[in-house]
């Protein structure tokens, strides 16, 4: 718990709380006790802590301190640490905020925290809404945030400083999240990214963690992971929507052929530079792309690494609809919320009728692509491209 609180504190107190005058004059907290019917569950609370990380608007110092205090009270109870010195402005402001909650019960603090996050989310332009309880496992790291509301489960890639590049942990977490979403009571599942990128594809540092079995072992396990990962998309039983909030690279583009709908901001681009990287197509794109856009356009993308704009990708049929960046989030979520109210069983069955005929073929293609890529990863062409990127000599 201290770790989460620490991260929250670091996240919000680093720059924003640098003015001690500003933070020390916030008014006393207006808190009220709530009855049993108003209590938030532990899961609501955990969802709210995830939601907080996705707020797009800075809520201001006072609110940040309120959140900090409520979080501490909800997780640790009344303030129990020594008061920081008067010159330690930031920690003193935080201590004051926590201490001001007195003996407020943990449950009430949890409820007030959820309430506060909920009001912030409603007023922010974030695409993600505060989530009610959903019967699902949370993935094991902050790099992926899963929320559920209004019949929509949203899986958000949350490594904006690394352009949402996919670590091996994230592949595993996405698989877990898809598994849970396939069983929860949501009607639609969405994959999106936090920050300016949708996803920059495979994290190239995945190549640096070589096990005792050497590079062959690494390539072998990488191919198994890739195959499992793509299999989950092939088999996903409910409508799967990509909300492409910015540029997309590599595997985040190829798997779009397995989504049911792809909405993109006009700022998005679609780039599969496999030859540049000494690699080969995956995500079933060797089959879905020629089918979607014809073999020649698919070759331009998958062999020559042509980067498509959102509008070009829409013309080619890879993207369903493009929205102006300024209204993207609003328009897309209004649309998805309306769709999510349709009868969920009918939607699921209709999706399966559309997709099931291809499933067996897609699994075979996935297996083949993964095998070919395993060999590619051992090639000089691939090694050189990865070393070049990691030594900052090359970018796409
Ligand atoms: C044998 C191993 C197997 C492992 C298991 C794998 C299982 C599945 C594999 C599936 C295979 C998929 C194939 C692909 O996805 S190919 C595509 C790979 N992606 C790339 O090559 C993109 C590389 N990134 C870039 O070219 C540029 O970063 C960018 C995306 C064009 C953005 O450029 P920009 O100038 O705007 O931003 P920065 O470069 O400064 O990026 C900010 C920081 O983010 C780091 N970053 C970005 N993308 C990646 C990435 N894909 N991998 C690792 N790191 C990435 C970048 O280094 C910066 O970090 P820094 O701030 O620390 O310098």
From TrEMBL:
Catalytic reaction(s) noted: a (3E)-enoyl-CoA = a 4-saturated (2E)-enoyl-CoA; (2E)-tetradecenoyl-CoA = (3Z)-tetradecenoyl-CoA; (3Z)-octenoyl-CoA = (2E)-octenoyl-CoA; a (3Z)-enoyl-CoA = a 4-saturated (2E)-enoyl-CoA
Pathway entry: Lipid metabolism; fatty acid beta-oxidation
EC number: 5.3.3.8
ACB domain segment(s): 41-126
InterPro entries: Acyl-CoA-binding_prot_CS, Acyl-CoA-binding_protein, Acyl-CoA-binding_sf, ClpP/crotonase-like_dom_sf, ECH/Chromodomain_protein, Enoyl-CoA_hydra/iso, Enoyl-CoA_hydra_C, FERM/acyl-CoA-bd_prot_sf
Gene Ontology CC terms, in alphabetical order: mitochondrion; peroxisomal matrix
One Pfam family matching this protein: ACBP
Key words, A-Z: Acetylation, Isomerase, Mitochondrion, Peroxisome, Phosphoprotein, Transit peptide
GO molecular function per UniProt: delta(3)-delta(2)-enoyl-CoA isomerase activity; fatty-acyl-CoA binding
Stored CDD domains: ACBP, crotonase-like
Primary subcellular site in the record, as a coarse category: mitochondrion
Locations listed in the record: Mitochondrion; Peroxisome matrix
Family: In the C-terminal section; belongs to the enoyl-CoA hydratase/isomerase family.
Functional note: Able to isomerize both 3-cis and 3-trans double bonds into the 2-trans form in a range of enoyl-CoA species. Has a preference for 3-trans substrates.
Protein name, per record: Enoyl-CoA delta isomerase 2
């Amino acid at each position: 718990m201290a770790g989460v609180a620490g991260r929250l504190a670091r996240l919000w107190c680093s720059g924003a709380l640098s003015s001690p005058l500003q933070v020390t004059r916030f008014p006393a907290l207006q808190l009220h006790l709530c009855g049993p019917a108003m209590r938030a569950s532990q899961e609501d609370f955990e969802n709210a802590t995830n939601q907080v990380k996705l707020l797009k608007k800075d809520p201001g110092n006072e609110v940040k301190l309120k959140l900090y205090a409520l979080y501490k009270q909800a997780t640790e109870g009344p303030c129990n640490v020594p008061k920081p010195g008067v010159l330690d402005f930031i920690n003193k402001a935080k201590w004051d905020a926590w201490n001001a909650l007195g003996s407020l019960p943990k449950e009430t603090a949890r409820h007030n925290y959820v309430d506060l996050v909920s009001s912030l989310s409603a007023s922010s332009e974030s695409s993600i809404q505060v989530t009610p309880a959903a019967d699902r496992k949370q993935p094991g790291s902050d790099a992926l945030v899963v929320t559920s509301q209004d019949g929509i489960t949203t899986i958000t890639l949350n490594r904006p400083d690394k352009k949402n590049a996919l670590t091996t942990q994230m592949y595993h977490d996405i698989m877990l999240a898809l598994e849970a979403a396939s069983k929860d009571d949501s009607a639609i599942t969405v994959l999106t990214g936090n920050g300016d990128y949708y996803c920059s594809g495979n994290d190239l540092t995945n190549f640096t963690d070589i096990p005792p079995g050497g590079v062959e072992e690494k390539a072998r396990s990488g191919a198994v992971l890739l195959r499992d990962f793509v299999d989950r998309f092939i088999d996903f039983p409910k409508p799967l929507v990509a909300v492409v909030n910015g540029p997309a690279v590599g595997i985040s583009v190829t798997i779009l052929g397995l989504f049911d709908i792809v909405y993109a901001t006009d700022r998005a681009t679609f780039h599969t530079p496999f030859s540049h990287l000494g690699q080969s197509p995956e995500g079933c794109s060797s089959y879905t792309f020629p089918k979607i856009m014809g073999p020649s356009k698919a070759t331009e993308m998958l062999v020559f690494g042509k980067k498509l704009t959102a509008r070009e990708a829409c013309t080619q049929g890879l993207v369903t609809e493009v929205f102006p960046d300024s209204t993207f989030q609003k328009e897309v979520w209004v649309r998805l919320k309306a769709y999510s109210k349709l009868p969920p069983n009918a939607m699921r069955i209709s999706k399966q009728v559309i997709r099931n005929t291809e499933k067996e073929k897609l699994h075979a293609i996935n297996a083949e692509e993964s095998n070919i890529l395993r060999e590619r990863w051992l090639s000089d062409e691939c090694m050189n491209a990865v070393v070049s990127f990691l030594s900052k000599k090359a970018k796409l």
